[in-house]
Amino acid sequence: MRALASTIRVAVPEDAAALATIHAAAWRSAYAGIIPYRSLGGMIRRHDAAWWESAIKRGAGLLVAEFEGVPFGYASFGATRTGHPAAAGEIYELYLLPHYQGIGFGRQLFAKARAVLRERGLSGLLVWALAENTNALAFYRGLGGREIGRATERFETMPVEKIAFVWR
Questions:
Q1: pTM of the model
Q2: Nearest to 10 by CA among 48, 50, 61
Q3: How large is the angle between the packed helices 16-31 and 49-57, nearest 10 degrees?
Q4: Are residues 112 and 105 in contact, defined by beta-carbon separation less than 8 angstroms?
Q5: Which domain holds residue 21?
Q6: CATH number of 109's domain
Q7: Tell me: the pLDDT tens digits for 1-39?
Q8: Residue 85 domain flag
Q9: Residues in the chain, pLDDT under 70
Q10: What is d(CA 116, CA 78) in angstroms, rounded to the nearest whole number?
């Protein structure tokens, strides 16, 4: 069976509405029951089309994945935010609409984001995932990510553990 192929390209301002839709659907699917409802809703509302358009215009590292011309996923990336010595680059977010998950598109998007980071001279890759997001943990472990640390993030009064993965 032949693998499905997506088009992965740099985001443009016209992608803003689609990115807001993808973000909202993917975050609701991934984090309902993990992040408190009010916090999750607030994060989704803040990442509306205007927010995405502004991020694109500021030159944020942002790729869009599309299938047959329809955007279904994105990855945001850049220099690592933690300054970890094992990784100069970081994928901040990688999300797909739920019905596009589990069929190889996420791997394609991950590979492209990693390649762009290398092209920019950012060797080594860091990704954080919430410890209760078992799908994300399986995805990053399946891509060969090695767990290198844990931290806690607070949402309202609720502590949520996150795990750092690294690729060299």
A1: 0.94
A2: 61
A3: 120
A4: no
A5: 7-167
A6: 3.40.630.30
A7: 455 678 999 999 999 999 999 999 999 999 999 999 999
A8: yes
A9: 1-4
A10: 9
Residue with tokens 């694109």: 56
- CB atoms near residue 138 (< 10 Å): 11
Q: How far is CA 121 from CA 86, 124, 128, in A?
A: 14, 10, 21
Mean pLDDT of the chain: 95
pLDDT (0 to 100) of residue 22:
98
Note whether residue 1 is domain-resident: no
The predicted structure's pLDDT at residue 84: 81
Q: Indicate whether 160 belongs to any domain.
A: yes
The total number of structural domains that make up the chain? 1
Domain for residue 134, yes or no? yes
Between CA 129 and CA 112 the distance in angstroms is: 19
Helix (H, G, I), strand (E, B) or coil at 119: helix
